[in-house]
Each structure stands twice: as structure tokens, then as C-alpha cells.
Amino acid sequence: MQISRRHALTGLGLLLVPNMPVYARKQDPKVKLAVGRALDYLVRTQKRQGYWEANGGQYRVAMTALSGMALLCEGSTTNRGKYAKTVRSAVDYLVDMSQPNGLIGYEKDYHYTYGHGFSMLFLSQILGEEEGAERRKNLLRVLNNSVKFSGYAQTTRGGWGYVSAKDGGDFDEGSTCITQVQGLRACRNAGIPVAKEIIDRAKQYIKDCTTPEGGVQYSIRGGGARPPITAAAVAAMYSAGDYDESTHVEKMLEFCKENIWPNEGGSSNYFGHWHYTHYYYSQVMYRDETVWPKYFEDISRQILPKQNASGAWKEGHIGDVYTTAINATILQLENGYVPIYQR
Q1: How crowded is residue 44: how many other Cβ atoms within 10 Å of its Cβ?
Q2: Which domain holds residue 191?
Q3: In terms of CB atoms within 10 Å, which end of the chain has fewer, N or C?
Q4: Nearest-angstrom CA–CA distance, 278 and 77
Q5: Organism's domain of life (predicted)?
Q6: What is the DSSP string of 146-198?
Q7: pLDDT digit string (tens) for 71-114?
Q8: Among 10, 11, 31, 8, residue whose Cα is nearest residue 334
Q9: Is 259 part of a structural domain of the chain?
Q10: Would you give the DSSP letter of residue 310?
Q11: Is residue 11 part of a domain?
Q12: Distance (Å, rounded) from C-alpha 163 to C-alpha 44?
């Protein structure tokens, strides 16, 4: 996988190589055990065709991409590692789900942009490590087409909705916008051409959704500042190239600190869309080496006791695959294997 320049051990004249952890403090054995059980659960619940699904058989594309990301965080790829076969099956399923118009998913799914965005994220991380000529060719085709579809699906305001702008009457909202921005940036990092205008318009959309206090609203039309979307927006803006020196991002980050962590009650004090919130907020916290150890201590203390005997986390209405994939990803961020999550 691609390795950031910041991960070069320049003082020793050494360079990190693929499949080597980028950041490794001594891992808590309880965390390691929980992650192993969670990933084994995902392996057991993968369908023969290569996909995972949420409750009621929903969101197959999104669940497959999120589960695949959790497995990549362990260090496995399509070519090597304990979960290589599982990762290959997931990749092949998503490649097969690519439509002629570039959408990765079902057009009949009224939330298909989530799966499309998460799939761009996952498949772009696979591309750099893919050694199979045929699979690499297919990945390049799918990712190039998926980027074009995202551009086509963008609304006149620069955001995205649950479906493309033309299918959804130009409706847009914050959470789907985040998945597109991060997915597009991941594709660009992997060498897939992405028009700068698409990213710039999306960044402006996020800014236009931000309140004076720094919270990001549900949509440009209003809906109130929401901590989960704000956390996701900070992660997306980081992915898009806006870092701490951006006054706008700093304001959003301050809003997160007041409403998510480290607020007075800690992260447990926030109850709405908890897993979605910390999936993104953990990515933000990981970028700051000064706060990550304390955040990880707090978040793992909340996650670990809730794990079921099966290895899953049975929380929320979306389903066990969703919560398990997200928790496993959070607990593995400091492995440093996945380029988009790296410092």
C-alpha cells in the first residue's frame, strides 16, 4: 500500500515497507483479542457471493465495503494475509456490482450513494497492493467510472443526496456528501483522476452547511448543527487536504470537542449515532498524537465490554455487521496499514 512521507524513518535512513505497521505502541492484549474475534465474526457472516448485509438484507454494498476496510486494517490484502480470501471475495462482489453508468450498487436502493462512496474508499485502498493483472485492470475500470458517476451525481450546490442529483431532484445532505468526499480523495491518492472542481465544490458545500459555532447542519437548507455530521466533516476535510491551519476546520473541531470528546461527560455522554460519530471522530483523533492515547483509552474502554460472545457488537438498528466493522476499524487505526487512515 502507499506509504506517507511522514512515515519514513529518515533518522535511520530506513523506509517503511508495505504490510508493516506504521505506528505501534504496545498493544493491549484485550484489544488484540477483541479485534481477532470481531474479524473472525465478519469472515463467518460473509455470504458465499462475497457480500455482507445489514438487518433485513439491506445495504449490501455499504456493509461489504465497511467490512472490507476492517479487514484491511488488520493488514490483509487480496494477495496475502490471514483474511486474503475474504478480502478477494468482497472486492470481486463490488466489482461485479459496478453498473454501466459507474454506480457501484443498486439503482433501486434509495440510499445508494452511501454504498458507492464507501466502495470507492475500499477499492482504492486495494488498488495499490493488487498484484493480479486482471483484478487490477477491473479495479482501474471500476474506480475511473465510479469517479465519473460521483461527478454526475453532485448537486448544483456541490453536495450529494441519497441518490444522484438527477434521480433525487437535486436534494443534498451532509452525511452522504462526506462519503463521496472521502471516497473521491482516496481514489485521487491512488492515482485515479479526480477533477479538482468536484472536491472544491464539495468543500464549499460543507462550509456552507456550517453554523457560526462550527457545527455542520443536516443540509444546506438547515436542520441544526449535528455532532455526528460535524465529526465526519472534519475527517472528510482532512482527507480533502484541509488541516489544522484552516480556521474553518479548527472551528468544526472545537465544536466536536465540546459535543463529542473530550466534553464534560466523555464520549459516553453523546448518544445519537454513536458508531457513525466515532468511526469518523477516531480518524480525526488519530491524526493528533498528543490526544490519541487518551482518546483510544476512553473509546476502547467503552467498546470492549459490549462485545458479544460471537465476536460481534449487537447495538443499534442497522445491524451487527455495521457495528462490528466500525468498532474493529476504530480499534485497529494505529496499525497504520490503510493509507487513507494514516497520519
Answers
A1: 11
A2: 20-341
A3: C
A4: 25
A5: Bacteria
A6: HHHHHHHH--TTS-B-SS-TTTTTT--BHHHHHHHHHHHHHHHHTT----HHH
A7: 999 999 999 999 999 999 999 999 999 999 999 999 989 899 99
A8: 31
A9: yes
A10: T
A11: no
A12: 31
